[in-house]
Amino acid sequence: MSGYGGYGTGSFGFILVLFILLVIIISVGVWH
Length: 32
What we know:
Protein name: YjcZ family sporulation protein
Main location: membrane
Keywords: Membrane, Transmembrane, Transmembrane helix
Strand content: under 5%
Family: Belongs to the SscA family.
Number of helices: 1
Number of strands: 0
Structural class: mainly alpha
Transmembrane segments: 12-31
Low-confidence stretches: none
Mean pLDDT: 76
């Protein structure tokens, strides 16, 4: 995950992506 999302720090980028996916899943769950 090195450089994923253009951050250069793979771990932070990975956590950020997981957080975004979690927010999307929660949003879909609330709306549905």
